[in-house]
Amino acid sequence: xxxCQCKSALLYWIILxxxxxxxxxxxxxxxxxxxxxxxxxxxxxxxxALPSGQTNFMYRAAACPNDGEYNIVxxxxxxxxxxxxxxxxxxxxxxxxxxxMFIVNxxxxxxxxxxxxxxxxxxxxxxxxxxxxxxxxxxxxxxxCDEYILRNPIIAMRVEQADGTLIREVVQPAVxxxxxxxxxxxSMPFVIQTNANDVVVKLINKGLGGCGNDLVxxxxxxxxxxxxLSIQFPNTSASETTVCADTRLTLSxxxxxxxxxxxxxxxxxxxxxxxxxxxxxxxxxxTINPVRAGRTYYRLRNAQPINSAAIGRSQCSAExxxxxxxxxxxxxFNLGDDLALCDGxxxxxxxxxxxxxxxxxxxxxxxxxxxxxxxxxGSYWLETNLDGCTYSDTVQAELENCHLEDVYIPDAFSPxxxxxxxxxxxxxxxxxxxxxxxxxxxxxSVIFSSRQAxxxxxxxxxxxxxxxxxxxxxxDYSVLNAxxxxxxxxxxxxxxxxx
Length: 499
Known about the structure:
This protein is mostly beta strands. The chain has helices at 3-19, 80-83, and strands at residues 38-40, 58-59, 69-73, 101-105, 111-118, 126-135, 155-161, 166-171, 183-191, 199-205, 214-224, 229-232, 240-244, 249-257, 263-269, 275-277, 285-288, 294-303, 318-319, 323-328, 339-342, 347-350, 360-363, 371-374, 378-386, 389-400, 412-413, 432-440, 446-450, 460-461, 464-465, 469-480, 486-497. The protein folds into 4 domains: 3-224, Jelly Rolls, CATH 2.60.120; 229-328, Immunoglobulins (Immunoglobulin-like), CATH 2.60.40.10; 339-400, Immunoglobulins (Immunoglobulin-like, Sandwich); 412-497, Immunoglobulin-like (Sandwich), CATH 2.60.40. It starts with a helix and ends with a strand. This is Gliding motility-associated C-terminal domain-containing protein.
């Protein structure tokens, strides 16, 4: 009775089925190991044969399958095969109404009964393959049928690389018989080699069938087994803290370091369900700056460098505990840009009107008025306080030439050689980055042109004095303003030449 073989066969079939997205019937992961990426419970209620190609056993929709046959049932009939089996009224999960399990009557000779390729695993990660098995044979004394040697399920679990290279094989201890039905968990850890992420999983029946070697399997689980990883707040082991919003708070790796020499990925969440990466956080510590108002959850993943591209996948990385940061609201604001004090004129700073109710404030001179008049260079700040949470903003005030973009060209000049206003001078307080100045006569002809700001018109054209009268001019120039930004201007006007 090949219960052992088929049960194991389905076991791996289910695992690989889930690994390769095949159609399987699964229920709550609570029936499997925590963190399982495969969890086969065989569902509940009526269930037919397994998909073709997953096992070489014969499906038989009967309470008592024969040697080399299997069925999926929610209970085992104890009267089968001459009252040789236990009566099993429910599957491995207590209270799982009509929950199914996989019952197999082993074939006669030991053989490999399942083989399947698993793709897309994480290299260098340890995986655990496990299942729950129940020996349904209740005959406790050997006899003629079994040649006076009790035949119990013996399952070999084997994992190979795709080219057949052995990764690991474990022959599990025989699942012994008992006076009452007893579920036993079998498991095998193995490591995916660092040069491949595809494996072939095989189940081999090492026991003889015929009289005995009959079993049921349930809750097949396949999960990564990562080293423990913990994170902590400074100077406390608490998992939750409350601090003021817009302050700094550093999180760090705790006593459990996870993988050695890892890559890191900090994550945050508003609901402890949907997680997003924290930009620029690939270190063992992370400083929240600033802390956000409200509740925010933080956790850390780390992985071996070979899995850095897949660090967001749970099967490729260790996952830490979750820390909760409660940000108490403050009263944030913005005083604006730094101040330019022009020509000695003061500038008035205002307390923002949109501060939350109950907010107090104080200026850098310790005054508490809603305005602060700034007339001298220096640093000026405003600090708000909302229920003990402070926020401040600072501006710098500097004396500046606020006319760097302006030029002044006189309305008249008198080139009469008396050393007073003898030339038409373009007045500018800074330096030009480009410059072109032209003067035109009444017919629009250019009578003076200069690209050098220090070269001025002396009221002549071709070394001859120009007549008294009005002359048009244009200037095309570029300058650097107070923010060191280049600005370009084109201006025009008239000047009166008098003698």
